[in-house]
């Protein structure tokens, strides 16, 4: 499966983390067919001078069913890409933190993959977590 970069992300969320403010940019909604694949895009940008030193990227899934539990999908930490749980063999790192990209590709999409996928960015020396989400319909 190939990973590619979105030219013009369509949604953004700004958070002010004290001295550090930034954007995490995702697509608000995506649709995928059962058995297909989908690129969950996540781009980040500092709003103050200087580049972010990103220490961790997390992807978390919250199912459409309100009684369902959140589950970790994937995390990137110290140059390691770690798919987790039921997503372990179906999610692939497509990002490059040096290029402000925390995107992942979900393959062999299943009906119960529908829900909200949150991309969380952690920055060295900051307690704030910067995040945004994509709602996936299968």
Low-confidence stretches: 1-19
Which quaternary structure do these chains form? single chain
- Counting DSSP H or I runs of 4 or more residues, the number of helices is 0
Task: Give the biggest sheet.
Answer: 6 strands, mixed
CATH topology: Immunoglobulin-like
The assigned structural class equals mainly beta
Strand order of the largest sheet: 3-12-11-6-7-8
Going by CATH, what is the homologous superfamily?
Immunoglobulins
What is the total tally of β strands? 12
Keywords: Disulfide bond, Glycoprotein, Immunoglobulin domain, Membrane, Signal, Transmembrane, Transmembrane helix
Organism: Pelodiscus sinensis
Main location: membrane
InterPro entries: Ig-like_dom, Ig-like_dom_sf, Ig-like_fold, Ig_sub, Ig_V-set, Myelin_P0-rel
Give an overview of the whole structure.
The chain is mainly beta. The chain is built from no helices and 12 strands. The chain has strands spanning 11-17, 20-26, 29-31, 38-40, 43-46, 54-63, 71-77, 80-83, 91-93, 104-106, 115-123, 129-137. The strands form 3 sheets. A 6-stranded mixed β-sheet has the order 3-12-11-6-7-8, with no helix packed on it. It starts with 10 loop residues before the first strand and ends with a strand.
